[in-house]
Amino acid sequence: MLDYPSLAAVAAVVREGSFEKAAALLKITPSAVSQRVRGFEERLGIALVVRGQPCTATEQGRELCAHFDKVRLLEADLPMSFANGIQDSSRPSLSIAVNADSLATWFPYAMADFARTTGMLVELTLEDEGHTADRLRTGEVLAVVTSDPEPVAGCRTIAVGSLSYVACASPDFVARYFPTGIDGDSLNIAPVMRFNRKDQLQGRWAKAAFGTDLNAPTHWIPSTQGFLDLACAGLGWGLQPKTLAKPRIHAGTLIELVPGDTMDVPLFWTVSRLHAQAIQAMTSAVKKVARQHLQPVPM
User: Fold this and answer.
1) One domain, residues 60 and 177
2) How many angstroms separate the CA atoms of 49 and 61, rounded?
């Protein structure tokens, strides 16, 4: 039987990043937190927390913290009369990894629906849609929005729809870099914007539309809103979520590089099979909102 008060201390230190903040969360002293963590590690014979700024979990610590998060969600389903004292003083939250473009477009509606229905909290991790499933595999989160349809052990994967993108730039940028039209050569001269090193969307679009391997000067813009605003300002070209770009195109501050051409990125909801009401409620919210805001995934 695990020592849940001690495990709560480990999870709090990892979640908050320090013993002092964990103590404030648990409403005990930092020395009491340290004693619980150290005693738990000694009884198990393994290190669970890497002391530092911030404190992080070892591989075994991550596994135990993931277990603790699952237990807290299950405990939240119990009537108060069955409370068994394993919870810390904070409310349990559902941990989810989501890509920035989903968070800037359709996913907030699912979160709000979930919160209204359950009154529970959400803890989000931002990650590229092609890599969010890695967070699920390591136990950091219990659900992800991902473009990776590969199955994850202990989880189920649901196709929810496609997020449509359009390649855009400002009129001034197009006049400067594509005065005679767009082709593979001009695309490799014009500065392109990418979210981060994991973002391959612009390269995939250039390959599909013009058959070129993109090797252009690159601006790194790790913000969906910044990506949009800087495209309008003429910094570079890039693929924008269609729902965000459409008003700017109508206003004339953005131009589609290939009018009418879209790139659809299929998205999946991969979620733990844990039988917790919070997971079921979030899955229902995601499916409902995705039907309203995403393009159907071709069968």
Assistant:
1) no
2) 6
